[in-house]
Amino acid sequence: LGFKSFSQQAPNCVLKFSSVVEKDGKGFGGVDITLYEGSKRVSQYVTSSYGDFVVDVPANGEFVLIVSKDGYNSKRFAINTKGVPEDMTKDNFKPVLKLEGVTMSKPLPGIDYSALSQNLIQVRYTSKKFEDDAAYTSQMLGAIMKIRQAEGILLEKYAAANKACDEALKKADCNKAKENYTKANGILPDEQYPKDQLVKAEKCATAKDEDKKKEEEAKLAAEKAAADKAAADKLAAEKAAAEKAEADKLAADKAAADKLVAEKVAADKL
Asked: What percent of the chain has pLDDT over 70?
């Protein structure tokens, strides 16, 4: 609700109620503008691509104007056209009332929007013109400010979670990024950004897991190669030692045999 700039031009008692519906600061087309008298639908319009609309509010009745669109918070405005003096109607009174702007937004999870089920303003005829009940408008503005504050806190949490995610992702802290993007997605489930970033974080985590697995496999392969080499070296050393021992034994046996032969020859000479 863009409170508020009212005007009227005096001199039919049909009240021309006009405004512009906005979203993110721009005109919002395709929004339903429905006028009710009790449970009876009096008329229905759809905003132009620029978001503007004009509604003819009949004389001598109590009406509620509802601005609505699927997926967005509706806004209600009470308009009472009773009480216009007969002399004003005789003067071809052509009242016009312009509301500065109606802002549409999607509901955020966990926010209490019950105040929006009430009429945001109450328009009535007073002293040759139609105007809102200033005290009531002020009260509703206070309720809307509370909603905006609650939304602001929620959006700050969402932004903080995304910021922590982005920083973690830059540092390739993939699991922390996943944790915070999941948290951000839980805060505002309809937002696409954390969903897209969560995919990146999961890919990052998968890549890091694969790199870690490759490192572990390489480490195990290196350890096995080292163990195999050590075993082969040990086996070669043991073989060399056995061969040396066998050669030493043969040499010793030959020396002993040669000695016996020499001793026998010497004994035969005696």
From this structure: 93
Task: Give dist(CA 68, CA 77) in Å, integer.
Answer: 12
DSSP of 96-159: EEE-SBEE--PPPTT---GGGGS-SEEEEEETTEEEE-HHHHHHHHHHHHHHHHHHHHHHHHHH
Q: Which residue has the tokens 């969402």?
A: 158
Q: Which amino acid, 102?
A: V
In DSSP terms, 41 is beta-bridged to: 36
Q: What contacts 207, CB < 8 A, 6 or more positions away?
A: 174
Q: Which residues of 36-53 are buried (b: 16+ CB within 10 A; e: fewer)?
A: beeeeebeeeebeeebeb
Closest among 73, 141, 79 to 112, alpha carbons compared: 73
Q: What is the pLDDT of residues 131-168, one digit of tens each?
A: 999 999 999 999 999 999 999 999 999 999 899 889 98
In one letter, which amino acid is 30? G
SS3 78: strand
Which amino acid, one-letter code, is at 153? Answer: I
Q: Is 135 exposed, middle or buried (0-12, 13-18, 19+ CB in 10 A)?
A: exposed
Cα–Cα distance for residue pair 59/76, rounded to 1 Å: 19
Which pTM value belongs to this model?
0.70
How many Å apart are CA 223 and CA 221, to the nearest integer? 5
The length of the chain, given as a count of residues: 270
What span, in angstroms and rounded, lies between the C-alpha atoms of 53 and 28?
A: 11
- The Cα–Cα gap between 138 and 130 comes to 17
**DSSP 8-state assignment for residue 120:** S
Separation CA 222–CA 211 (nearest Å): 16
Instruction: Please answer whether residues 63 and 37 qualify as being in contact, where contact means their C-beta atoms are separated by less than 8 angstroms.
Output: yes
Rounded-to-integer distance, Cα 116 and Cα 28, Å = 19
